[in-house]
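All the exercises in this workshop are built on plain-text protein records. A learned vocabulary of local backbone shapes supplies the integers on the structure line. Once this layout is familiar, the rest of the handout is easier to follow. An example says more than a description, so a record of this kind follows:
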Amino acid sequence: MGSSSSQTRKFTVENDEVPASVIKVSENVANRLRTSCTHMDEISGTDSEYWHNRTKHMEESHREINVVIDREFNKALNEVKSSRTAGDSRMKEVPCLDYERAVLDCYRMHNEEPMCCARIVQAFQECVDFKRVCLLNANKTESE
């Protein structure tokens, strides 16, 4: 704290007095102890003020950060909600419904020979793949 280095001194005081709790010291030692205590109180007061201000500043910084985080979270939440709403309308349409019906009708007609429906199943699969690619491209275009 100060510019000069201080050393701790150790000394032992023998007290031959009956009330062992009282130690007599010279006036010079008493003055040095008083000065030392006053100086420590001043340093302690300054440190206390410093830490109080530092804590206050950090609390304010955290409040500002929390406001930004809340704002960004709500923004992201609204983006997800709006993209889900847009995507829901596309997802309600069942893709390749006519091909699906054709596959089911073929399996009913040829329940003993399912390989007869291979071309219709292939057409249905291609239709579904095409619709999937279209949906993915639409989502990709919206996000850009």
User: Anything to note?
Assistant: The two ends are 59 Å apart (CA to CA). The CA atoms of residues 38 and 44 lie 10 Å apart.
